[in-house]
């Protein structure tokens, strides 16, 4: 492991340095008496060693949700972008844009219908009152006609419907009786009697029908009045609740349709979800896109973090939030950077048979030579 190599390398260099110092002392001063001096002690600087990798403050991998062919690539690797910037567009946008336009128009129409329903309430209220008045007049007139109608003596024990049925039967009988004599002289006594009976039967039938019509007109007028009053009750405090619910449901449906159409259009554009740098761009105009395949990587390089990879359960208990650490990149052994522990993992991983925990360290220093993914040696200071 790299940190072990560094550890032994450092120990080896320290040993050479001590030997060199010892040799120099032997040349410059006489060998001291062992009984007069103690052997020199090499003090350990202390600390816990671990390996890690450098990562940017934030990064995201972006992909399309639909398939298609790239029509525009609006950025290049290394470009600075802001959240919401369009990075890449797919073709076939005309149909999606038309769907959005139609959905927007339907939403406008639905909203206008609701506005009209509300603004026309006063007019509808006046119409409802007028309908109540008309129905009331019809009830009054039908009652007057029925109250002033004299029911023939022979029908007073019958309902209007029964009277019509029975009087019709009597009329048919009288007509049949008269039929053989209808061409006889008007002076014929038998014809005169049968004609009188036929006329009486016709008069009784007409009266029964008129009475039934009056009753039907009254019931119809009453039903219209009831309906008019119910409508008035519905709208007296505001627009018809049923129509209002339908208008709002139409708006809700239109909003969902617009959202769906807009989503289909938006899916043809790949937008930045963070402020940062285009770290990787895998598309050119004409490229065929597959859904959910990463094609662009954005990263915020405004600060660097280090994540440990092999901090064991033995060592993690000695790490604290806010603790300082020294970071030395493998590629830059002469560079020492300071960092502060920002978080300590609560979930373990098994690496090479060891139980390890990931710590996140914010670098408080930087260097233009640092690169994403560089391996580093971390020394946690005690």
Task: Explain this structure.
With 382 residues, the chain is of the alpha+beta class. The chain has 3 domains: 1-43, no CATH class; 46-90 and 279-380, Elongation Factor Tu (Ef-tu), domain 3 (Beta Barrel), CATH 2.40.30.170; 119-246, Helix Hairpins. It has 7 helices and 14 strands. The chain has a 6-stranded antiparallel beta barrel. β9 (324-329) and β10 (337-344) form a beta hairpin. α2 (93-119) packs antiparallel against α6 (241-266), α3 packs antiparallel against α5 (189-235) and α4 (160-178) packs antiparallel against α5. Mean pLDDT is 87; it is low at 1-44.
The largest sheet, given as strand count, sense and whether it forms a barrel, is: 6 strands, antiparallel, barrel
Distance between the termini: 23 Å
Q: What value does the average pLDDT take? A: 87
Q: Which stretches of 5+ consecutive residues score pLDDT under 50? A: 1-44
Q: Which outline best applies?
A: rod-shaped
Estimated share of beta-strand residues: 15-25%
According to CATH, the fold-level topology of the largest domain is: Elongation Factor Tu (Ef-tu), domain 3
Can you count the beta strands?
A: 14
- Total of helices: 7
Structural class: alpha+beta
| The first-level CATH class name of the largest domain | Mainly Beta
Record the strand order, biggest sheet: 1-8-13-10-9-14
Proportion in helices: 40-55%
Question: For the record, what is the CATH homologous superfamily label of the largest domain?
Answer: Efflux pump adaptor protein, beta barrel domain
* H/E topology pattern: HEEEEHHHHHEEEEHEEEEEE
Number of domains: 3
Radius of gyration, whole Å: 50 Å
């Amino acid at each position: 492991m790299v940190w072990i190599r560094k550890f032994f390398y450092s120990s080896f260099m320290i040993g050479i340095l001590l030997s060199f110092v010892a040799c120099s002392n032997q040349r410059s001063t006489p060998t001291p008496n062992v009984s007069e001096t103690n052997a020199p002690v090499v003090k350990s600087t202390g600390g816990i060693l671990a390996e890690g990798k450098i990562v940017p403050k934030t990064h995201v991998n972006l992909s399309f949700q639909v398939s298609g062919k790239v029509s525009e690539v609006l950025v290049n690797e290394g470009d600075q972008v802001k959240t919401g910037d369009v990075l890449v567009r797919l073709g076939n946008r005309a149909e999606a844009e038309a769907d959005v336009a139609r959905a927007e128009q339907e939403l406008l129409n639905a909203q206008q219908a609701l506005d009209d329903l509300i603004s026309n309430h006063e007019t509808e209220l006046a119409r409802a009152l007028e309908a109540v008045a008309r129905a009331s007049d019809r009830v009054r007139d039908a009652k007057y006609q029925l109250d002033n109608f004299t029911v023939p003596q022979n029908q007073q024990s019958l309902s209007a419907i029964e009277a019509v049925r029975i009087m019709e039967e009597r009329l048919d009988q009288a007509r049949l009786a008269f039929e053989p004599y209808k061409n006889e002289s008007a002076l014929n006594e038998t014809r005169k009697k049968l004609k009188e009976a036929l006329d009486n039967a016709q008069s009784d039938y007409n009266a029964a029908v008129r009475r039934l019509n009056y009753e039907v007109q009254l019931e119809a007028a009453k039903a219209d009045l009831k309906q008019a009053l119910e409508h008035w009750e519905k709208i007296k405090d505001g627009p018809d609740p049923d129509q209002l619910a339908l208008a709002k449901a139409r708006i809700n449906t239109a909003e969902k349709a617009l959202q769906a159409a807009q989503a289909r259009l938006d899916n043809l554009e790949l937008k930045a979800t963070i402020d940062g740098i285009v770290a990787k761009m895998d598309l050119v105009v004409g490229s065929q896109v597959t859904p959910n395949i990463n094609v662009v990587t954005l990263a915020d390089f405004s600060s660097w973090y280090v994540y440990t990879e092999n901090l064991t359960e033995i060592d993690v208990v000695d790490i604290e939030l806010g603790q300082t650490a020294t970071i030395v990149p493998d590629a830059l052994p002469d560079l020492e950077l300071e960092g502060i522990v920002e978080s300590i993992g609560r979930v373990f991983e098994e690496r090479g048979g060891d139980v390890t925990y990931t710590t996140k360290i914010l670098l408080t220093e930087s260097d233009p030579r640092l690169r994403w993914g560089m391996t580093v040696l971390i020394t946690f200071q005690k």
